Amino acid sequence: MSPASSAVAAGAPRVELRGISRAFGATVANQDVDLSLEPASIHALVGENGAGKSTLMRVLYGLVAPDRGEILINGRPRRIRSPADALALGIGMMHQHFMLVPPMTVLENVVLGYPGWRGLRRLPRARLGAEVADLLARYGFDLPLAAPVSQLGVGERQRVEIARLLFHGARLLICDEPTAVLAPPEVDALLAVLERLREEGRTIVLITHKLAEVLSAADRVTVLRRGRVVGGAERGAFDREQLVAWIMGEGQGAAPLAAEPEAPVAGEVRGARPSDAHKAEVALRAEALAADDRQGRRRLQAASFVLQRGEILGVAGVQGNGQRELVEAVAGRRPLAAGCLQIGTRRFGPGQPVPDRDCPALIPEDRLQEGLFPRFRLWENLLVGHLGEPGRPWRHFYRPDAVRAWATELLHRFRVAPPEAQLRPQALSGGNQQKLLCARALSRRTPVLVAAQPTRGIDLASTRFLHQLLRAHRDAGGSVLLVSADLDEILALSDRVAVLYRGRLTSPRPRAAVDLEHLGRAMVGLSSGDEVA
Amino acid sequence: MEGAASLRRGLLRGLPLFGALAAALCVGAAIALALGVAPATIGRRLADGILLSPYGWGQVLYKATSLTCTGLAVAVAFRAGLFNIGGEGQAVVGALACALVALAASGLPPLLLLPLALAGAFAGGALWGWIPGWLKARWGTHEVINTIMLNFIALALSNLMITRYLGLPETVRTAEIGAGAVLPRLGDIWPALRGSAVNLGLLVALGAAAALHLFLEHTPAGLRLRAVGAGRRQAELLGIRPGRQIQIAFLLGGGLAGLVGANVVLGYKHYYEDGFSGGIGFLGIAVALLARNAPLAVFPAALLFGFLSQAGFVVNTLLPRELIEILTGVILLTFVAGEHARTRWRRRLGGRRAVRGGGGAA
Questions:
Q1: Which residue in chain B is spatially nearest to A388 when comparing CA positions?
Q2: Is B36 touching A (CB cutoff 8 A)?
Q3: Does some domain include residue B353?
Q4: Topology of domain A284-360+448-457+477-533, per CATH?
Q5: Would you call B97 helix, strand, or coil by DSSP?
Q6: How many other C-beta atoms lie within 10 A of the C-beta of residue A371?
Q7: A171-175, A423-427, B84-88, B281-285: lowest mean pLDDT where?
């Protein structure tokens, strides 16, 4: 074996996908896609939801069989029929939803599937423990080996997932939107790890919607649109505008939306708006709100704020800091442990459930687990959010075709595609699912909207449209409590900004008085919230 | 194009059922041959005994009436995401309550007595169903365990009450209910059916199926109940209280199973007899499964199992009655396997849509 080839064997294989096509029924997910993945590089794969990124990577990982095309590993055609085949070739995939077993320990999760631990044999804990500890130390992962994964935060779980792939010998790592769940400093840490892996000679495929990450981390980018490769370039040979043009389709696509600036630059101050007339009218007031999780642990402490009519109050918060409890308590869907919630002129304390008609509309953070009913049709998904509303024709009885007509009109108005009320949510892309949720929430006749992570993991066009909807709601005199881990989103939309960290909410500051960096630090407790201003 | 697609979907929907029936026919014929009975003989027996005999159909309808009630009891719970394995116990308590109400209020005019006895059947079953529902809502205990246990309690309770307190001496049954509480037999109206047990309880069961259909598919209250079954967490965040819906589902399910009492006590025997249930609660699970938990499909599915049960009766001089249980098992297993294949196939069609929907914002 020549020195050169053994060097390649130690690093990642050179992977080439040639002419990959895959159709699901009449619709083409991938059409003649060529992609070559060089060893020791970070290769970003971008495109709208439904552009075919995931299908392509599932082909490479052996989860989907291509209709046509071939995969070459180090120049040799290979058939990858299952993830086991892929892993044997050194290809690993980190899914958006982690494939970890929560009650098992970090060590057990990392070594799960280890060939020497089969049947009734005992896990060689000491030996593997040392091996895994070594591995973790090499990448600077500070993880408690004996702790169950269920006790870890999202960022830590992700590191367990990475360690697992590395332990099993992955030299090419496919990362499906790894940063969607992370706070900005955690994103930086993850990108540093990915760069470290590249230096070792590994290949990273980074699927992402965040163009900033592509610009800062990727050695090469490939853009998919409607199943085809529409663009690609080496680092330095593309910029933000070029990427947007590829993703959206040059000159066409969501032209009216594309004209809007994607994220206003930090420090931009919003001018006067029609809604200023409503100012100082209180839509919702929280006084020292406290709420517990299901196990009775206090997750939200003494949160106080005023939400005025015609304003968007942004709350920057990462998962696990009480943001779920804040969202649900303010939406009237979680009993208060202490404090008082005033909605309009009505006040509610602990032990006083908020009647449905007073509850603010809610866009929960997890669209398929908390928002939409997967087995319901779209019209049922819409109707179920409007039961018991006074003045609706379905107080006691409804006719499905009448409701379908109403729902179809809503689907059109909120640009859900396809606007077919008989479909089920799985038939929609993530962006369209989110629009559906938004349609259900905004068509409620309530002035206050509580939106949690409304655009997480969805494509640019849908994100812009949803942002437009939130602004329109605000400008029409409505109020929005926007809880998001995406600081660009917080800064782009909010009139005032607060930070939620470890269950404590800072007092809201005007948008002009906060900037991205401090906000990011406050979100993970690196600076106290009051330094944000 | 659309028409062809919907035709294909329709065929696909029917496939598991027809597959299951075909499998049952084949297995039945094979067993008959192995036992040295010509399938043609059995066919002739079935034709004479059921298919061409109004009496046979009457018996099938009588059995299907009870199975419709217990099938609906399983279906409504399932639509709320719950397993009601307690149809047997609910039917027993419902029938007992029905008889007791009919006996106690025998002085009332029929126009009052009959609805009251029906209400008694519903209320008895509903009470028995509500217990596991409340336990689940309040303490989170598993409804499968509790409904099964309550079956045993109901059967033992019925035995105790009848032998010790309520029954006629030396029998395991109550006294006869008055003529005012009787649901007339269809044979009294249509002489061809004379002798068979089918009675106006059939209309009660069909009415219950229609009412449940309207409730589930056309009312906000029904949608709330289904919402809990389709996504408990989602429902909670919309202000629907799962605990409440669970109790409603079990109250309704128990009540529907209790209506068996109307068929058996008011329509057929005219008294309550201990041990009448004989597994109709459990067979209700099979009925609901075959009906895919759709109330309007429950009666046809009940007809099938009613037919099977009567068929076992008709051929029992030729073949062992266990054959019917084997065929029931074959039907269920083939149907479930067919359903599995169907959902996989549908998912493939669905996957196509997911891609088409993408990027549709433009």
A1: B220
A2: no
A3: no
A4: Rossmann fold (3.40.50)
A5: helix
A6: 27
A7: A423-427
Within a domain: residue B335? Answer: yes
Q: pLDDT value at position B287?
A: 97
What does the domain layout of chain A look like in residue ranges?
Answer: 3-250, 284-360+448-457+477-533, 370-445
Residue B359 pLDDT: 35
Mutation for testing the B interface, residue in A31, A244, A328, A397 having most B CBs under 10 Å = A397
Q: Determine, yes or no, domain membership for B4.
A: no
Question: How far off is chain A from B208, nearest CA to CA, in Å?
Answer: 17
The whole-angstrom distance between B2's CA and the closest CA on chain A is 13
Q: Is B359 close to A356, i.e. CB distance below 8 A?
A: no
**What is the strand order of the sheet A228-234 is part of?**
A91-94, A172-176, A203-207, A41-46, A220-225, A228-234
The count of structural domains within chain B is 1
Closest CA to A175 of A167, A185, A184, A165: A165
Put simply, the answer to whether B362 touches A388 (Cβ < 8 Å) is no
B224/A387 Cβ within 8 A: yes
State the nearest Cα–Cα gap between A516 and chain B, in angstroms.
Answer: 29
What residue of A is the nearest CA neighbor of B81? Answer: A375
| Low-confidence winner among A36-50, A469-483, B151-165 (lowest mean pLDDT) | A36-50
CATH code for A3-250? 3.40.50.300
For the CA atoms of A466, A469, A470, A472, the dihedral, rounded to the nearest 10 degrees, stands at 160
Q: What is the ipTM metric for this complex?
A: 0.89
Band the pLDDT of A524: cuts 50, 70, 90. Answer: low
Which residues of A are less than 8 Å from B358 in CB distance?
A: 48-51, 429, 431-432, 459
- Tell me what pLDDT residue B357 has: 36
- Please give the residue range of the domain that contains residue B147: 19-29+40-343
In tens, the pLDDT along A475-490 reads: 999 999 999 988 889 9
Answer yes or no: are the C-beta atoms of B103 and B177 closer than 8 Å: yes
Instruction: Report d(CA A462, CA B361) in Å as an integer.
Output: 6
Cβ-Cβ contacts under 8 Å, A28 against chain B: 355
User: The domain that contains B64 carries what CATH number?
Assistant: 1.10.3470
Higher pLDDT, A438 or A522: A438
Check CB contact of B191 with chain A, cutoff 8 Å.
no
The gap from C-alpha B214 to its chain's centroid, in whole angstroms, comes to: 18
Compare all CA atoms of chain A with the CA of B345 and give the residue at the minimum distance: A25
DSSP notation for A131-174: HHHHHHHHTT----TTSBGGGS-HHHHHHHHHHHHHHTT-SEEE
Cis peptide before A256 (omega within 30 of 0): no
pTM of the complete model: 0.78
Of B220, B355, B362, the CB nearest to A24: B355
Q: Which of residues 223-242 of B touch A (CB under 8 A)?
A: 223-224, 226-227, 230-231, 233-240
| Contact call for B361 and A29, based on CB within 8 A | no
Subunit contact A461:B361, Cβ cutoff 8 A: yes
What is the rounded average pLDDT for all residues in chain A?
85
Give tens-digit pLDDT for B214-261.
999 999 999 999 999 999 999 999 999 999 999 999 999 999 999 999
Inspect the interface and report whether the beta carbons of A427 and B353 lie closer than 8 Å.
yes
Judge whether B360 lies within some domain: no
Is-contact A189 A196, C-beta < 8 A? no
